[in-house]
Write a structure and sequence with these properties.
alpha/beta; two-stranded antiparallel sheet; 10-stranded mixed beta sheet; Isopropylmalate Dehydrogenase; single chain
């Protein structure tokens, strides 16, 4: 039976790289049925639609969502991010953001291989806060960080489960417990309590500022990293930068309980400056598709896609997609 996939090409280079990812999936012999959804900045500029409840209900019926990129310069910052991306994360309960990093840091000689698990539905992104006397010299702005034991524990537990399946069996908590005493304490206590259930997993703790240094200078120290929403957002972009560039970075927004579809996307953005030039590298989108296939149980096809991506040469968007598809097909 075909896997039922919702495809949101989105804006800019998103539709182009997503088309290559779909091409590669099919070349790998995986049976998928795709349905395109017109969502993103361009759709919003056309008729004001971001993500209606009706469309959200349609998306719930799919096995997974493959997203290209969203956002255009003509839409104010935050409109699409909150109205589309965060709404899907919250409403579909995509509480795990999982991003693998395999590569060699600039100046390094040995490749690293680690995964960051970012809590994806809490923290400052919930939007707790407000402003007073906006636009005046007396303006006040507050932005809270919303953390629950339920949300933290299920994220930490997912990270321990993942670490227990990997060869090194090592998990590092990253936070800022010396300053963020309330949220930091919740994360540290939860981490320590769950750790007692996984004696086979070695653990460590880093302050987030120290982790930024280690990501660059010594990424080999990491196997699995777990952290909160904001720190994870920042660290994963840094992880991409030291693993071949953000243009190669894939990601999975997971609902591990499978009560709704998980969503898979590259993290490079819509790149409006190269739209229509057939210049975008589709590798991150294709690697995100491989993560999707892993989630769907198509692990052999996912492994073959990753190998083909490692062997692909350079060229236009379609050239690279064709090369990877040919290698996967062979």
């Amino acid at each position: 039976m075909a896997h039922n996939i919702a495809v949101i090409g989105g804006d800019g280079i998103g539709p182009d790289v997503t088309a290559e990812a779909v091409k590669v999936i099919r070349a790998a012999g995986v049976d998928i049925a795709t349905t395109d959804f017109d969502l993103g900045g361009s759709r919003y500029l056309k008729d004001g639609e971001i993500l209606s409840d009706e469309t959200l209900d349609e998306l719930r019926a799919f096995d997974c969502i493959l997203l290209g990129a969203v956002g255009t310069p003509d839409v104010p910052p935050g409109v699409i991010e909150r109205g589309l991306l965060l709404k899907m994360r919250f409403e579909l309960d995509l509480y795990i953001n999982q991003r693998p990093f395999v590569g060699t840091a600039p100046g390094g000689t040995e490749p690293h291989d680690f995964v960051v698990i970012r809590e994806n539905t809490e923290g400052p992104y919930v939007g707790e806060g407000g402003s007073l006397r906006e636009g005046t010299p007396q303006e006040v702005a507050t932005q809270g960080s919303f953390n629950t034991r339920f949300g933290v524990e299920r994220c930490v537990r997912h990270a321990f489960e993942l670490a227990s399946t990997r060869e090194r069996k090592h998990l590092t908590l990253v936070h800022k417990t010396n300053v963020l005493q309330f949220s930091g304490s919740l994360w540290q206590r939860t981490f320590d309590e769950v750790a007692t259930e996984y004696p086979q997993v070695d653990t460590a703790y880093n302050h987030v500022d120290a982790a930024c240094i280690y990501f660059v200078q010594d990424p080999h120290r990491y196997d699995v990293v777990v952290t909160d929403n904001l720190f994870g957002d920042i660290l994963t972009d840094l992880g991409g930068a030291v693993s071949g560039g953000i243009g190669l970075a894939s990601s999975a927004n997971l609902n591990p309980d499978r009560t709704g579809p998980s969503m898979f996307e590259p993290v490079h953005g819509s790149a409006p400056d190269i739209v229509g030039q057939n210049k975008a590298n589709p590798t991150a989108s294709i690697l995100s598709a491989a993560l999707m296939l892993d989630f769907l149980g198509e692990t052999d096809a996912a492994a073959r896609i990753r190998t083909a991506c490692d062997e692909a040469g350079t060229g236009s968007t379609t050239d690279v997609g064709d090369m990877i598809a040919a290698r996967v097909g062979n």
